[in-house]
Batch of 2 targets.
Target 1
Amino acid sequence: MERLPLEKKVLSENDRLAAGLRARFREHGILCFNLISSPGSGKTSLLERTLESLPQNERVGILTGDIQTDNDARRLARFGFPVKQITTGGTCHLDARMIERGLEGWRLLDIDLLLIENVGNLVCPASYDLGEAAKIVVLSVTEGEDKPLKYPSIFFKAKLLVLNKVDLLPYVPFDIDAAEENARCIHPGMDIVRVSCTTGDGIQPWLAWLEQRRHLQLAARAESVVPERARAALR
Amino acid sequence: MERLPLEKKVLSENDRLAAGLRARFREHGILCFNLISSPGSGKTSLLERTLESLPQNERVGILTGDIQTDNDARRLARFGFPVKQITTGGTCHLDARMIERGLEGWRLLDIDLLLIENVGNLVCPASYDLGEAAKIVVLSVTEGEDKPLKYPSIFFKAKLLVLNKVDLLPYVPFDIDAAEENARCIHPGMDIVRVSCTTGDGIQPWLAWLEQRRHLQLAARAESVVPERARAALR
């Protein structure tokens, strides 16, 4: 009972910081995604596949969250892009202040795409805005097709569902069509890509989704820039 | 910052309620386990395998937690033992008060073994005592062998690690010996069983572990009863 008002206060403080981050990302033309899943669904593997596919002149930054260890940052650093580990030391999610601190020392003008890998947890990270353009939820086919119904908040909030480990479909009792149906029951119109980070299947559609979001962002920016110029001309 | 004192207060209130539950369990000779894992690691499947293996005259009760849906209670009810779903409606863990309420309407004298399936979350449930005799952590081989290092709290607190889905070992890059080593690095002397709820491999050792805990509890009770009787005789 008594917890609610403080939880609201913490979340509204987080919202304030996240709004600041979002404004900075917009100002510097950074497209930011927040990847959320259970532990072991394959967020880091998806990032590995992504980074190995991007040209070296891509201006990507990665913040990766964990309760303990810098394993993920070490795995991701070998692709040559700037990577920073955020170790929460017990906290079950990343919050906007951790992202602010994580960005310290980076020139935001040098980044076009910021990928945030959240702590492995399908529940709590859904409540914390990090200033991202979109949340992305990763669900692996070993986890059961009813997960969108059991953990609706993140499926409702994420723009994209990445159904990972499809190479394991022959070995697990997972109905992938039912999983998609359950996700769209919670979030009609949700984008979905099926991938295997092990075989590389589906990585192209995933990269195409990222690219499409980039075009949408550029188009939105262009639209917002034109009226500004028009206004300037009228002054 | 400001969150900590209240979190401590919430946890100490939970500890108080959990101590009450533990006393009631002891009084009624109930052995209680709290199963914790990520979503989809196989807690419900493990319970299904357990319930199908137990004789119908076993006096077992099951409380199963989820944020939404009563899917798990429906899956587990078909074995004929009393099952209740606890739907948290958003909360990322079970707490002692939810267990208290879940037990309402059950005659505790009719239960010998109480199995609690927590919300799928490898982080937050570790902080909440439910009055159990032991926490049990389930990790599936699809999740990566570094999880004990990344989520140390639950591996430190659990008496037993159930390494599930070993039937998938040929298809995933999971080093099961490294996983056990990581778990024992966090918690030396931790018990570990390897199981596949799909094939039934390892279910016998798991049942034997439960049985052994029951004998330990009975032995502890007998020890505590004797001095009481002795005290009574001296009055």
Note: The CA atoms of residues 33 and 134 of chain B lie 5 Å apart.
Target 2
Amino acid sequence: MIDLAILKEIAVRTPTKIVLLVLDGLGGLPLQETGKTELETARTPNLDRLAVGGICGLSDPVSPGITPGSGPAHLSLFGYDPVRFLVGRGVLEALGIDFDLHQGDVAARGNFCTTDENGLITDRRAGRITTAKNIELCRMLNQIKIAGIELFVLPVKEHRLAVVFRGRGLSGEVQDTDPQQTGLLPRKAAPLSPDAEKMAAAANEFLLRARSALMDSHPANMVLLRGFSRRPSLPQMSEVLKLSPAAIAAYPMYRGLARLMGMQVLDTGSTFADELDTLARHWQGHDFFYVHVKQTDSAGEDGDFDRKVRAIEEVDALLPRLIRLNPDVLIVTGDHSTPAVLKGHSWHPVPILLHSKHCRPDKTREFSESACLEGGLGRMPATDIMPLAMANALKLNKFGA
Amino acid sequence: MIDLAILKEIAVRTPTKIVLLVLDGLGGLPLQETGKTELETARTPNLDRLAVGGICGLSDPVSPGITPGSGPAHLSLFGYDPVRFLVGRGVLEALGIDFDLHQGDVAARGNFCTTDENGLITDRRAGRITTAKNIELCRMLNQIKIAGIELFVLPVKEHRLAVVFRGRGLSGEVQDTDPQQTGLLPRKAAPLSPDAEKMAAAANEFLLRARSALMDSHPANMVLLRGFSRRPSLPQMSEVLKLSPAAIAAYPMYRGLARLMGMQVLDTGSTFADELDTLARHWQGHDFFYVHVKQTDSAGEDGDFDRKVRAIEEVDALLPRLIRLNPDVLIVTGDHSTPAVLKGHSWHPVPILLHSKHCRPDKTREFSESACLEGGLGRMPATDIMPLAMANALKLNKFGA
């Protein structure tokens, strides 16, 4: 991958517009009966037409064989080395509930759990209490005061919560307090580096007070924390790529990731049609649009091949509305593969389609994994997608004399 | 390539089994008359059937254009950066005679040579003395005592020997004493770094005493040493990949390389049929098997196109025995190319075939260089093979949240 510092040197502001349409978990695996993947099964006349005029290929989000989480997969899509720039689990959890993390904040994932009279964990999920109960308990825990720390105790769903610690000099290098099994005491939040002592002390103080506060709240009478992590400080797309980038995503986690990279997050409804409305409404205001569709991934995660096929077809059916906006560069791809047959993210390379006036079209006649295999983009690391998008939008000057 | 530290984080132990079948020097070049390589000429119905259900591609052992020795080629196959982890020539020579190198040992290749009355080298190979004579002389040299050093003088073949120095604080950074031409004095074993002074002194003392001991053994009246190297300390496959790995190889050097990576070396006979017996016998005891076939490389090195074709066909004919064991992941590849027309290792990318339930099959209908060129694995660095094998065996967790 090209270094961001080099991109920063050669990127220029132009009026041309780029749309990066991400169908989450797009890549798939064939059904045994048909030999066709989800994308190959779906009727996609509009995507196929784009493939004819465009150039296709396959991308690796991290490296061959590596199955990425949503964090690394998205960072890579936007040109950030996913091994160097890590987004921790606590940070992702906080982004996932639309919490506005500040520079320096440390976030952790939490569980309400049940402990017995000796403090030993008997249920790591506190019997999966209701979200309503969770909200009530978090309101109580939010009363806890720790000197020098601003505390945010944020309900997620059922027994899950996020805790954000705001203050000076906090590090995310703190051990999980969740021992990941019952019959044990919760662990201390031990510092994993000397820098993390202040953070560990704050976490331990929070947990001590939480235990008292929850004393009468059986089965949710304790909290376990894991995935302590500091909001990463990412180079901003506006600075590095000279873009005015906007994100259109119905799911909070993707909005949160976009915010980390400096994208302006646009208000939008939850369907792809809503997202296209948002896109049209803000078309004049930005030169880069990231549009995220979650349904493909959700169907894949649920192992629902047919629903993933339908999700792809629904996007295809509305695509003419996007095409009519006439972006200079339109890329359709996924952040990773989520084959329905594996019911989860996978390591398989992701189909990508790039359409622009300047793309040197290949012979691809349709958008599918097997057609992409013969596409002109070849097999590429996903981190090369942004430089290619920029180049096709004529937003990159020559490198070197 | 993905960092071993990351693999270590995400690798998990599962009951699934991987077989990596290495046909040494598999890749070839076409005969002018037929336009077909050795692999393309061979009748390989079983490999072709695997290719139909599997996914193919081409790998580069080190980098395009680089012809690897057996050391780097094998390290790369097992996921080790072949440029970072070097196996020295002396170490390879000692491994090649099944010598059990310990941590910290330094080994050198040796030649018996002839010197004249002034000590000038007149024949670098001592008239290629018999191996019997070599064994007799090595027995004599093994009597040499050096303070603080345990010495092993090991006969190889004809005029060739290996010398292993065992002791504390030895470094391999010592200059060759072999000047590589006649009419010169043997060089001193000069230290190439301050750390290597102890090792250089030991080598010089050995050579001084060897000269006296060999005084009456014309034409083998002196020893030349080169390729001083310390046994590399490689991350162990069991720790990094959480595998219980076994090696089945008839040739000692490959057993030695496997040992460096922490594989358990299984006793086996010398034919592929013997190796398959060994595999079946130990099937329950391991979850990763490296099976090495040397004949393809030997035929290539001899420039014997037809013999290399036959060696490939012999493997293919016995393949059903391996397939019946039903490994979750079966990979067939080479460590490098050895085209018969070049009579030696070459830089050409190596055909690879991966068969597993989760591999997203491509359209490849046969296992050959030209079919692999259109395969779904594309062109890959060989260091990606192990991550892909692990992924297909569902032995890698997601990277990042």
Note: Residues 302 and 343 of chain B are 6 Å apart (CA to CA).
